[in-house]
């Protein structure tokens, strides 16, 4: 696994550990889902429910694949050992990416405005400077919008162990570093 991927895994684990327990649990994914849905004030009920379902599916996949002792929690070691295995998580990550991007595009025009992107990524817990750097890496148009497709691809790339130098690497560490 590339060093960049390890850094991305650590960051996501820390963000998903919404209650700060040091473990991932179903409750963490419910907390995170509510934070993200609350930030999507312009999105409709169907998009919000799809996002909640995507968070629940993410947890269910982790629990099924990683919770060998069935204690309903995932340690960082369990998470990092397997979460970047595309064959195990590809459909879950795709569902998550599509659902998150749909929240960012409430008018359905295929474009995500910077303020909406910032709100959603801040709700997840990323640092503002890093979010700005990521948005810029996606190549916004003159109206300061990125495409839904670019964001979906960026999310999927973020979870690929073989990827380095991707837009999502801007979320790790200090922007511009």
Automatic annotation (TrEMBL):
Matching InterPro entries: EF-hand-dom_pair, EF_Hand_1_Ca_BS, EF_hand_dom
Domain EF-hand: 4-39
Coiled coil: none
Domain of life: Bacteria
Pfam families recorded: EF-hand_7
Name recorded for this polypeptide: Ca2+-binding EF-hand superfamily protein
Annotated source species: Amycolatopsis magusensis
